[in-house]
Structures are given as C-alpha cells and as structure tokens.
Amino acid sequence: MPYRVTVIGTGYLGITHAACMADLGYEVLGLDVDADKIRRLNSGELPIHEPGLEPVLRRGLESGRLRFTTSYEEVAAFGDVHFVCVGTPQKRGEYAADTTYLDNAVEFLAPLLDRECLVVGKSTVPVGTAERLADKLARLAPAGSQAELAWNPEFLREGFAVEDTLHPDRIVLGVRSERAEKRLREVYEPLGEVPIVVTDFATAELVKTAANAFLATKISFINAMAEVCEAAHADVGLLSEALSYDDRIGGRYLNAGLGFGGGCLPKDIRAFMARAGELGADQALTFLREVDAINMRRRARMVDLARELAGGSFHGCTVGVLGAAFKPNSDDIRDSPALAVAVTIGHQGGQVTVYDPIALDNARKAHPELNYGESAVEAVRGAHVVLLLTEWQEFVQLDPVELGAVVAARRIVDGRNALNAGMWRSAGWHYRALGRP
Ligand code: UGA
Questions:
Q1: Are the folds of 4-199 and 236-437 the same?
Q2: Which of 87, 288, 325, 383 shows its CA 20 to 30 Å from the CA of 133?
Q3: Any idea where the domains of the chain sit in the sequence?
Q4: What's the 411 CA to ligand 1 centre distance in angstroms?
Q5: Is the CB of residue 346 below 6 angstroms from any atom belonging to ligand 1?
Q6: What is the 3-state secondary structure (H, E, C) of 72-89?
Q7: The model scores a pTM over 0.85
Q8: Residue pLDDT, tens place only, 283-325
Q9: Is 326 in the pocket of ligand 1 (CB under 6 A)?
Q10: What's the 258 CA to ligand 1 centre distance in angstroms?
Q11: What CATH topology corresponds to 236-437?
Q12: Any residues with CB less than 8 A from the CB of 415 and at least 6 apart, and which?
C-alpha cells in the first residue's frame, strides 16, 4: 500500500475509519487528545459499543498496521493522507454547530506539515468550513501548497459502521486539484466498485447535511401521518407498509414511532438551518423547523399516552421503561428519545425504572436520578405502565405472558411500533402504540 494514513479524532467515525483502513492493508496511525482512550484502543479495547468493530480493531493492532497516539508530531511525520474525524456538536443554547475541535485539529497539525500530504475532512460541517480550513492550512503549513485539503463526508450509521465503511453506497470527493482526486481514488480503490461523485468543497459539505435532512424529513413525514392516523382512528403501520411498495417512496426510514435522536440527525438539521440563515437562504429550510417540531412532539405524545394509561397522573405510579439508547444495537444515548421520555415522566412524579441491554452504564452516568433494572423483567416488576422506547430485538421477543406475571397492571405503550399487538392483547395486555388505534 503506497500511502500511510492517519485518523484524527477517535469517536464512532474515527475508530471505525482507522480500523477499516488498516483492514484494507494500510498502515494507520490514529490520534486523540484523550490519553486514556488511546491507551484502551492500543490494548484492543473499544470505548464504544459497535457490533463487529472489535475484531477489526484487534486484527489491525495484531498485524502491526494499526496503532494510536496522542502526538501530533508523530502523526504529521507519519501520514501521506490525514483524515480528520473529530466531532462537531451543537453549540450550547444555539442551533449552530461548534467547529472548535476541527479548528483545533488543523491548528495543531498544520504547523507540523513540512512535506507533501493531503488533509481530508470527514466531519459533518456547516457549508463553507472547508474553504475556511483550506485557508488556515495554506497559512500555517510549512509545506505550503504541498499540503492540500479535501472534503470527503462520511455516511456511516452507528450499529452498521463497519459494513457502511467497507461497503459504502457512494463516495463523495470534494477536491480542488487533480492530484487530490487521484490520491483519494487510489486510497479507496480497495473498496472495489463504488460510485464516486467528485465535487467542489461546498457541494461535498452539503451532500452530507442534505442527506441527513432528507432522512429526518422522511421520519417526521411518517410521524406526522401517525398524528393524523391517531385523530382519524387509522393505522400508521399499515399506511407505511402500503406506501413502501411504491419504489419512488420506499420503506426505509418510514417507521413511525418515537422519532429520531442520536448525535447526528437532530443537531445536523439544526446546524443546517442556522447556516442557511447566515447565508441568507433561511426560507429554503424553514420546513426543517417543522421536521424538528414533529419529532419533538412524538416525545410529548408518548408521555401523554403513558399518563393516560396511568389513569391521568404519574403520582404513585411505577413506570417500567424498556430502552435507553437512541436506537437498537448502540450504547449511544445522545439526544435519546427514550431517555427524554423517561426523564420527563420522572419530573412529572412517576417512579421510573429503565433497562437497556447495552446503554445502561451511559444512561446511569447521565441520569443518576432515574432507577435502573438489570433486566427487562426487573425493570417492569410492579409497574403500572410499561413503555417500549428502543426496539432492541431482545424486547421484540419478550414473552407477554411471562412479563404479565410480574407487572402490577398489564398496560404497555409500544413507542416503536415493534411489538405484535395481537399477541400482547391476547395475553391480557392493554396495548397502545403511537399512530395506531
Ligand atoms: C445517521 C445517518 O443515517 C447516517 O447516514 C449518517 O452518517 C449519521 O447519521 C451521521 O451523520 O453520522 P445514525 O445517527 O447512526 O445515522 O442513526 P440512524 O440509523 O439514521 O437513526 C437515527 C434515528 O432515527 C434513530 O433514533 C432511529 O430510531 C430513528 N428512526 C430511524 C426512526 O425513528 N424511524 C425510522 O424509520 C428510522
């Protein structure tokens, strides 16, 4: 493999990218400012839950092609291609994205770049960021024009990170020179036949935010239909199924329920609106305000439905919550709809006990005020109402008869339209779901 690769920032994206690049045969050096994380990664321990990633990480470490460091000097000396994968969270009290980590990474790296190399941004950013960082790089790098920037957004989903990295739908290359394009095409060649779209910086940045905005809109569309279904006594599950057979619409991201959360979709649509406002194009994205509002209303509706089942008040009511992660197969609780609902019910006087197969530790740290159970059965023992808020397979397969024996009252709200309603009803449960009669 001709190029040596570095990966700056070891979150979900960075760890996956580093491990997968090593798996493809590259020599890879990963960097993070968190020394403890680097120590754990170097010993083969994943700081996150991501199915299938640990073996890839271990393989990389054992082959000697992958290691991790906290030293920018080492990274600068090592790499021909530097992938920047740091986070761009929502600013506190604002919609805009905080690009401080990205600016810091370039400010640390650039003054050390004294030879020919390519710096490749993968983080999700407000359009215009790449241009700004390119100027910074040109100003700070001793290598001058020999150190060039490119923008290559990432579309991986948590829970499928390895699969999405090794078998992407498409690769987007925002470049300013043939040299940059050629190098990135070579780097991704081991992935085989993948459609590649070559663009300018701004388009590459926008592809990512547009993709997430579209997915969020699709989810909020079906959740808006769920609201109408509830009012009209119709069934959003059947509605969604019927829509899905039209391949112009398609069935993916059309599951009605508690809506989207996580570290990406919610903050990305908000950052997109903020950036459009700065550019004077805010009218183009006012619909995203509605997308966000529909999404947040699902959480409120869930609390209302639970309160209704509890008899009009949560006081003296025990609520068993199944799920804390923002989606199944993840331990990520960032902006988790499940936890938001649990916390609100707690504030309204309910005694809430939460269980999640993987995200329990993270939930406990973030919300020590809630109670936690070590199993689904333990979380719902004595409950007056049970809420299914994250559709883990383990929950979908729960036996309504067995669970019915430990609760105080057989009442369940299926926040993800994931359970077999007939089965639960015939086991004597009062079953309710968002958007279904
Ligand atoms: C999302 C995008 O899907 C990725 O393509 C993108 O790369 C990533 O953000 C990112 O920007 O880094 P992710 O946040 O891992 O990926 O989660 P998704 O699988 O897209 O799910 C997002 C949320 O939507 C979850 O809370 C999920 O429960 C919810 N969802 C999804 C629904 O409520 N209904 C659906 O039909 C689908």
A1: yes
A2: 288
A3: 4-199, 236-437
A4: 29
A5: no
A6: HHHHHHHCCEEEECCCCC
A7: yes
A8: 999 999 999 999 999 999 999 999 999 999 999 999 999 999 9
A9: yes
A10: 13
A11: Rossmann fold (3.40.50)
A12: 257, 258, 302, 323, 337, 338, 341, 387, 388, 389, 433, 434
